[in-house]
Amino acid sequence: MKERVTTAVILAAGLGTRMLPATKAVPKEMLPVVDRPLIEYCVDEALEAGIERIVFVIAEGKEAILEHFRAGARVETALRETGNQELADSLAAIAAKAEFHAVYQPRQLGIAHAVACAREFIEGRPFALLFPDDVILGGRACTAQLVETFEARGGTVIAVEEVADVDVPQYGIVDPMEDGNPMRLRRVVEKPRLEEAPSRLGIVGRYVFSGSILRYIDETPPGRNGERQITDAIARQIGAGEPVSALRFEGRRYDTGRPLGYIVANVAAAMRRPELAPALRDRLAPLLKGEG
Hints:
The chain is an alpha/beta fold. The protein has one domain (7-257): Spore Coat Polysaccharide Biosynthesis Protein SpsA, Chain A (Alpha-Beta Complex), CATH 3.90.550.10. It contains eleven helices and 13 strands. It has a nine-stranded mixed sheet with strand order 5-4-1-6-11-8-12-10-9. The protein has a two-stranded antiparallel sheet with strand order 2-3.
């Protein structure tokens, strides 16, 4: 019987330089998409997959992330004192969703290094890894799809999507050894030139790792700028003969790490809200016609 995936690691230690100056003092992951911070979308997706424990990898100055998921925050107390119990209860419910922890990544030394910072919570057991920059909207949660695939096939499972030729050098690209979905992988290539890419399937910020991945992270030497890349650890896992699969997930991904993607994600999330969509559509129409 395979071990259940009950822990998720959410990476939130980055500097958010592509969203400056907004992220100078506010963690990028706390920027709102409509009326919820980016990272809450990630947490809700993990919970839908049956996750019970969430570990945030943060940097110094990003304690607001953990505070958001902690009961008894100052604003919650103030609301109760003014008699707004319903709103206070809704904030308290955020803290009751899961068991939350935070670990620090003292220096920006790559994704694999960030994952290893959560070692005490994940060593020897499967876990999900999520990047808050990627907001994925759709029917079934992407992480739930990965967990289901892991339970059926075992081994590490990576979320992928077709990317445009011009974007290939910005992604880790997978090389499938079979057709279908999911598909077992022959190799992964980090940011290849277009002519060297084995496919157009790019890795997005959702993974379910088997319990052995930390061993391969430990064996992975630092690369450029002293960083350890998760694709290198996955390549070692494949090289050792362990199954690694890619899944074309259902849903639409929005890259909120850049201003344009962030704006589009806000519009897309708002259009899924019946109390906002009609009025938003009316407001956007004249802007799209150049009348704003």
